[in-house]
Amino acid sequence: MAGRRLNIEWRAEDTPEALKAAWQTERDHAVKTRLHGLWMLRRGMNVSEVTRALEVHSRSVRRWMSWYRTGGLQEVTARRRGGKGGQSRLSEEQVSRLAWEMKKGRLVTAEDVRNWIAYQYGVIYTMPGVYSLMQRARTERVALGFRVQRDEPGLWQRISARLLRLLSLAKERLAPSFITKFKRRSGETEHP
Predict the structure, then answer these.
(1) What is the DSSP letter of 18?
(2) Where are the chain's structural domains?
(3) DSSP letter, residue 123
(4) Region 122-140: what's the mean pLDDT?
(5) Which of 89, 114, 148, 173 is such that its CA lies 20 to 30 A from the CA of 121?
(6) Is 63 exposed, middle or buried (CB count within 10 Å of its CB: 0-12, 13-18, 19+)?
(7) What pTM was estimated for this model as a whole?
(8) Could you report the per-residue pLDDT of 113-128, keeping only the tens digit for each?
């Protein structure tokens, strides 16, 4: 299949052997694929052959060629996936205080962390942002759900009451024996 003639002025140092060596020693998968594609182009393959061999879109190959024309291999290898990220909304001191609060057990769930940050510092985080911040503070992500975190009087009764309400809403879908067993275990009596 004859395509358009490639218009790439290869640099003298970018021989097929040099491109092959760069491709084979690269560790970043995305950059390795680009270098492999450039090596194929350098050996005389056209864009459609490269796209089929590497299973990438032709726009990607043309983008790599454009990067090469602009800045050579340095430009092709400098491009990385993802953005650089924004500047943190909390200072390192604030993040260390957050880590301390979490370590002491005052902030148990991601929702607790989010609310505490909003109250303390006036900064609103999205939940993915909270998880990222918790990871940065070198703490584990705590799963949300029904767990008794503190020994409060009546806490278990409130949780079981919520569960019973949820179960009554899903009564048609659950086996009645399961609901009866749960009520017996939680100390609830059958209401007419």
Answers:
(1) H
(2) 16-78, 92-136, 155-186
(3) -
(4) 81
(5) 148
(6) middle
(7) 0.45
(8) 999 999 998 989 988 8
